[in-house]
Design a protein that fits this description.
Number of strands: 20
Largest sheet: 5 strands, mixed
Distance between the termini: 25 Å
Structural class: mainly beta
Strand order of the largest sheet: 1-5-4-3-2
CATH topology of the largest domain: Neuraminidase
Number of helices: 2
Radius of gyration: 18 Å
Number of domains: 2
CATH architecture of the largest domain: 6 Propeller
Low-confidence stretches: none
Order of helices and strands: EEEEEEEHEEEEEEEEHEEEEE
Helix content: under 10%
Strand content: over 45%
Shape: globular
CATH superfamily of the largest domain: TolB, C-terminal domain
């Protein structure tokens, strides 16, 4: 296997690029990559790229005051977006510190309607909204919460994109990070069992943070833990995906992936 080659950018100016969550779709036969960009403090946006051989071509930028602290996003086949704000305030001010210290449920989910180009808040009352996914049928939206330590499940109206005001909750007893579809009906979830250890890992990579991966059956709502370690193998697991019988685990800070047999 050869060394992966970095993609070049086309039609992009000098705006700083600090990518976070990403989502991929194909619209009108064009492969598109949506990227959250924390361009500057209190300046967040979504950049939309056409994926070409060896190149990402910037097509447009989506901005809104509702993109307070965007973490992850999912794009629908019609171009609609759902984006999680992991905090209720931007920057590192007093309100954000209070939110973290007191575990306040001030984060939210916002929606972008591609037909009208309008943004709206569609869910709130979440403590650190993180990973997000839409069921293949379009009937349900799943939002991981790192501080509520589980998954919120919203009934979704496909024709309007509206969400049920009172979601169900699946308790993982672990702080949910990114959500990945292994296949229809099976959602793979990376999680942080210790918020304190994860905060220590943020300060220094020498501080280990335990990692967990869950496999959620979205019909039975039963979650099975399929991987767990104390952080020595991999700390701060951010993404887990079972693919071709292998479990692939990503992390927040360190530059490597962990792979192991999923059985």
């Amino acid at each position: 296997m050869g060394t992966p080659q970095p993609l070049s950018f086309a039609d992009r100016d000098g705006l700083p690029f600090h990518p976070h969550g990403i989502a991929f779709t194909v619209l009108g036969g064009v492969p598109l990559l949506y990227v959250i960009n924390h361009a500057m403090l209190n300046h967040h946006l979504i950049e939309v790229f056409a994926v070409k051989p060896g190149e990402l071509k910037l097509l447009r930028r989506l901005r809104s005051p509702l993109l307070i602290s965007p973490n992850d996003l999912v794009v629908l086949p019609n171009g609609d977006l759902y984006v999680t704000n992991d905090h209720g305030s931007s920057g590192n001010g007093f309100s954000r510190q209070v939110e973290d210290l007191l575990v306040r449920p001030w984060s939210s989910v916002v929606m972008y309607n591609a037909a009208s180009s309008k943004w709206s808040v569609v869910a709130d009352g979440i403590a650190f909204a993180n990973g997000i996914a839409v069921s293949p049928s379009g009937d349900f939206l799943y939002v991981g919460s790192s501080r509520d330590r589980g998954i919120f499940v919203y009934k979704r109206t496909p024709s309007t994109g509206e969400l049920s005001p009172r979601p169900d909750f699946i308790d993982l007893h672990s702080g949910a990070d990114n959500l990945m579809w292994e296949k229809p009906g099976i959602l793979d979830i990376a999680a942080h069992p210790s918020a304190i250890a994860f905060l220590g890992h943020m300060r220094s990579s020498e501080n280990l943070s335990p990692s967990e991966i869950f496999r959620l059956n979205t019909e039975s709502r039963v979650a099975e833990r399929i991987y767990s370690n104390d952080g020595k193998q991999i700390s701060g697991s951010s993404t887990g995906l079972v693919w071709n019988g292998m479990l692939i685990v990503g992390q927040v800070f360190e530059p490597f992936l962990l792979t192991c047999n999923a059985d």
